[in-house]
Amino acid sequence: MNKDWSEKNKEFQKLISKETTFKDGIKVLLEWRALDGDEEKSLKMLEELIIK
Question: Is the separation of the CB atoms in 28 and 52 below 8 Å?
Answer without folding.
Answer: no
